Queue: 3 jobs
Job 1
Amino acid sequence: MLVSQPLHFGTDGIRGPADKFPFTYEALLALGQSFGEWAIGRYGTRTPHFLIGCDTRISCPTIKKSLIQGISAVGGTVTDAGIIPTPAVGQLVQKTAHFNCGIIISASHNPYYDNGIKLFDAQTGKLTDADEQCIMQCFEAFFNQPSTLTLSTTTDAVSWHEASTTYINNVCALFTPEYLKGLTIVLDCANGATFSVAPAIFANLGANVIALNIEPTGTNINDQCGSLHPESLAQMVIKHNADFGFAFDGDGDRVIAVNNQGLIKDGDDLLEILLQHPAYKDTNCLVGTVMTNKGLENLLVSRNQALIRTKVGDKHVAQQLEKENLPLGGEASGHIIIKDYLVTGDGIFVALKTLESIVASGNTLMQTFEKHAQVIINIRVTHKKDLASTSIKPIIDQHEQTLASGRVLVRYSGTENVLRIMTEALQHDHAQTCASSLALHLSNVLNTEA
């Protein structure tokens, strides 16, 4: 009998090193079986149909094969979309009645040696907490009990070679033909899942495309490129005298922009530009996270608009958009949700919608708001003591008073013994001084008291 290890769903599915649990063969097999069993109950069919796709990581084919074996063993059927962006799976599942659920194998912006698994529900998009709990219970049963199920020795899936083309056509159909004609746009595809579809979409809509990092090797995804490293994109925009630049992450759900002067525009900037779009200009409330820049909040307040902050993670943003019936929300990282399109971020669609907004508003320089400087310090702690305790809260309160026009955020990591400190101020040195002092004082308290 195998000894079970805890299966953990984070804010963005299951993720971790690709050579460790739960990405071992036995665990993946049990996970595939669990997805199938959950789907049988969820959709009321003995043969739930999954669409599966992946990014360009070297570990994806092996993970995919094991999951397909497990799903097939309990009666599920699988269609393989090949290498395709995460949001493309979400879009195709929702627009194709044939599928009950979608699976994407990707660790998003992480290095190649990590991987992850995320599911999309055809009806609601994101899985609920109850869905995740059901899958974890099924996994524990399958992982701990020797399987009596017949396993296929082959990859029992139907290849959908036109999946990427269908996604490309679906996206292009949402925009005026040739509306990018005359624009030179640099795209950094991070050697990831957008490497072929992003240049094709922008070219189909009339842009002169200069594509970077479109030669995936399996180990170069996100490697000093993409949305986490937009500096080289900025240099290429200037070198080619381009109008705009966009950088995606490895699975294509994030985007960071660059204007024609080489200035980097993050997700907070893009949200403000999207608020200038005719479809969203009357929006009275935006959803962000605890990390959303104070400058954006100040701008919204000055226009009698509101900002609702959630926990970090697009899952929380999506839940708040649904709860408040709002159209637009996202994170500074570039994960932006346009709810009338998808309940997850699609970097390509967001970039195109941003350009549509720029064309409508004339804001070709992508001007937004005065940013507050943010300083982030992570400290290892011995004890996760209550931050509201009498030995800690006064320290935080005192430092908040030194940044009266800024912001202090102190929170624990959900998975590590780490305290995350973020300070914001108009001047960087004020934010840095406050963060350093706060880190020193809290480290002393948390690492010396039981």
Job 2
Amino acid sequence: MFATEHRLGHRVAIVSDHMPYRRATALLGSLLALLLWVPRPVLHAQTETMPEQTLKKIVGRQKLILEQAAKQGDKLDDESLRVQVQEICHDYEILINESPKFAAAYAAYGYLLRQIDMQKEGVAMLLKANALDPDIPLVKNQIGNYLAEDGKPLEAVNYFIAAIKLEPNEPLYHYELGKLLYDARDDFLNKGVYTRPQLDDAMHNAFKKATELAPDRVEFSYRYAESFYDLQKPDWDGALKVWASLEEKAQTPRERGIARLQAANVLIKQGKFDHARLLLSLVTEPDLDGQKQKLVAQLPENAKK
């Protein structure tokens, strides 16, 4: 998840708080994330092998665990969930021992281990999967994430690019690439990997592509709109167009209010104070009032002399 108050200081912090995939519990979110990917060979094979059948059963049990946990809500039994996840890990260990060259099993297990904060163990599994089968995009993406988190962006970027080449229509991979290029901008520029115009173009287009591929993913659309600010020469007009579009497509009053706050923020940067005042007057959601007042304070009549 990206932060919204850093370096350039152009953002309104409420966007970060709104991200829909903030997780109630890390473990529950990890199980959900794992279920978003099942090895394609397992799903589409004409004749399944025993290891493939076993992997499908493991993933199926994970789905059942997730559904049951979701139904429990606030009454979720953390200890029971922990035990069930341990059992799933044990099943993976058995599968890998019996099928030591089954790349998909290493991939799925490594992904799960990373999501439950067993980072080194997880990436070891992912690297093994990558060695056995270099054409699994999730593996490339996850190794890239690990390297980025480990402070190695110059190595991570190649894995993100490889994931995109393998699965160009997966929006998450484009988003991850854009995020890396922004977060590690100084590293790429200082090492001469990109010029500033090249980096701006690659970063901005990555977020744009993610949004085009997944227009309903609000977090992707928000980050694309923000990326107009991140250019060496911010494109305020471009940002306004995106925020206006997001306001029109908003599903809730809160989403509409967030888009208006962001647009008002841009208008203040442009010195278009009358239009900013109008938008701010339309933001009435109580939980957005704090961010609204921060912007109101930036209007000329309220700015400190």
Job 3
Amino acid sequence: MGDPPNILLIMMDQHRWDALSAVSDWVSTPHMDRIAAEGMRADRAYTNSPVCVPARVSLATGRYPHNTGVWENCRYDLPGDAPTWMRSVRDAGYSTSVFGKTHLHRHVGDLRDRVDLVRSWGLEHVDEIAGPRASTKTSSNLTDLWDQHGVREAYVRDVQNRVKRDPWAVRPSPLPFDLYPDVYVGRQAAGWLQAHADPRPWMCWVSFSGPHEPWDCPEPYASRFDPAAMPAPIVAPDGTSADRPRGLLDKRPDLGIPPEDVARMRADYAGNLALIDDQVGELLRVVEERGEMDNTVIAVVSDHGEMNGDFGMIYKQNFLDPSARIPFLLRAPGVPPGTVLDDPVELMDVGATLVDLAGGEPVAGSHARSLLPVLTQERRRHRQAAMSEFRGETMIATPQWKMAVNKAGDTYLLFDLESDPHETHNLAGSPEHRNTQDRLRSLMLRRLVSTLR
């Protein structure tokens, strides 16, 4: 047996699945592409909930919202004794750290008041920031720097103005480049890795707060991408049956965002991802300078996606692909370079995979599954289907089909992903697809029953 591998977990916030240049030509992410080329990219990866808090709680614990009771964003504190993948890695003999956003506890007040709580989950070194909106009313090491440089008030005014008046406004952040959250997180993590002298293997969780809105990418990245070169938004899905049940998606109207504003949002989003990707490149450079690249596991995920004008919507909170489908990359010993996995994968699976690679004990009560058996061909299939939940509704996705049911258990979304990859033809309620709907419902019920504990 060789030395235990180091672990670098790179996480974005609101990074949609297709915003990788390994997948699409409207973004540029060469460093993340390198990770995919030297390892694996899961093509059908889904969040366990298309909103921050429940998705992150599922990632930490390997449990679904129907287990945790966290169905939407709320003031929630993950208990200090909750079994987590981070503690399993630490207990396997690792030096552990987190930089950036966890959102596993209430993002109010001073985040440093809850450092002991974060450490109880298995994270020894903690430098946490809140998300873009919560940073207007919380304190952290980063906001202290904003105060010292006299820029915090301008940041708060800017975010509040966007939220109240023009939610899809695109303009550079009033923060100086060096104090932009994604730059801060990347540099703090890189500094910790450069200075790391602990004889134990290390696990570093780098959790960027971008490319989450607001669309405030700083220069020079704000001008890097031409709005005219951005892909046109996907049109709203049609309802082929007037009788089909309704769900949360039906309560989210088309906002009527002008096409030119959609293009500007996408160009700004691409710029923010390019900024983050350059920070990822710096992290890779530090690992290489330490001589540890050959024995370092690198994973890349996001908590959920971003509609970015598709279907006339922004943000997330639905089960359509721009919101629910996420990037999922893994570079690890034994993983064949250039692997593209078509099996459904869930966000929580990254935790089980990292514990497996670290030689740790499986997390008690976790429903996450390690990807290693399928990547090393010890097992043929990873999952038959991926499941996601939000506000009492449930989605299940196989390689061909996606179905969502409302709180009453009635199917309101059904898409044939092979013939309709953009999900523009809703087949829910269609008589000719009743057998498919029944089969998927049975699959969903079996999964729910098997994961009740």
